[in-house]
Structures are given as C-alpha cells and as structure tokens.
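Input (structure):
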C-alpha cells in the first residue's frame, strides 16, 4: 500500500513538472549590420582570440530572464506588449574585453535614453516576476567573442555600426547538436513597426 502511494506521488511530480526555457529580451540587429560586424571582427581578431559568435546570433540583450516556465513567459510577454515607447538610433562605437567572463564586445559610448529606458522597464518587470537581475548597471553591448580568457589586443577604433531600433524581441536560447541558436518567440513594435510572432 505504501509503495502504491509513493508511486502515485512520483508520477504526479513528473506530470506536473513543466519544461523550462532559457529566455531573454533583446534588440535584433539588421542583417547588414550583422554581416558588417562579422567582417570587421575577421579583419581585427585572430581565430585563437576566442569563440566566434555566429552572425545570426548577434544581438543586444535588454534583460536576461534565465530558466522560465511557459506560464511565467506568457505573463512576461503580456507585460512586454503593454510597453509603449518610440524607437531610437543605436551606434556601436565602443569596444571592450571582460577577461573574467571571457567576453569581447561592441557597445555604445553614449547609449540613447530610449535604450536605457526600455531595458530598465523590462528588467524591472522581470525582477517582479522572480527573474533574477544582476545589481550591476546595464551595459548595452553586442557580444563578439566568448571564451577570450587571455589578454587580447583590441582595435583602437570600431567601424561605428548604426541601426534604428524599431522593435524588441523575446528570444529563446536553444542548445542542440553542439551549437547554440537564438530563436525569436515574439516581437513588439517601437515607433509604429508591425508586430510579429513566431511559433516554436
């Protein structure tokens, strides 16, 4: 009798356990900007500098959510859909290396106010829903290389990539066949762009 009850409890636990998804909000980069960054990176960094981020995976993270249930993701999507903000121009004119995390990045010397406001809104909403947010100040950047643990000679200048942020998106990070892929789940417009949604 005890064994039967124990099995029932175990079975309920397995059934009720919903899969978690690794999610984050980010700005997508236009394809032309992605390709320009990849070419510039190839011209300025040797292959041994670190692990190259694929062109399609280049993005500017706004808020990292971590491992999130489908129910929590749905709430966060609803909240994101209520954000009303104009688009803004982004200039990637800064470069840096964080040896501790092994990241080489492109960033903004003077981030636009709209970018900072959007990130703050999304990070605050995520924190209220139990998604841990670092206490470090938001530093908008695009990760170029990972695993760069050794000192790296950085170029004196970037090629100053510019793009117009007309929407922001919720991404899922998926690791399969030895590779990480970032899939857009849903996008929300800034300054009148059309809303898009991709089912996965």
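Output (sequence):
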């Amino acid at each position: 009798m005890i064994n039967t009850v124990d099995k029932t409890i175990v079975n309920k636990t397995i059934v009720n356990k919903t899969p978690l998804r690794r999610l984050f909000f980010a700005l997508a980069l236009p394809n032309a900007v992605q390709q320009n960054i990849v070419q510039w990176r190839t011209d300025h960094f040797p292959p041994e500098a670190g692990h190259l981020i694929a062109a399609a995976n280049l993005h500017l993270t706004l808020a990292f959510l971590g491992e999130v249930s489908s129910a929590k993701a749905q709430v966060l999507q609803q909240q994101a859909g209520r954000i009303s903000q104009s688009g803004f121009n982004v200039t990637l004119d800064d470069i840096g290396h964080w040896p501790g995390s092994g990241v080489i990045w492109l960033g903004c010397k003077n981030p636009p106010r709209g970018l900072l406001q959007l990130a703050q809104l999304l990070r605050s909403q995520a924190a209220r829903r139990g998604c841990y947010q670092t206490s470090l100040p938001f530093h908008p950047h695009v990760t170029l290389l990972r695993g760069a643990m050794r000192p790296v000679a950085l170029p004196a200048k970037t090629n100053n990539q510019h793009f117009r942020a007309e929407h922001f998106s919720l991404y899922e990070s998926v690791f399969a066949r030895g590779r990480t892929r970032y899939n857009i789940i849903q996008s929300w417009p800034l300054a009148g762009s059309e809303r898009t949604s991709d089912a996965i």
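Notes: Residues 45 and 134 are 30 Å apart (CA to CA). Residues 22-189 form a domain with the Cyclic Phosphodiesterase; Chain: A, fold (CATH 3.90.1140.10).
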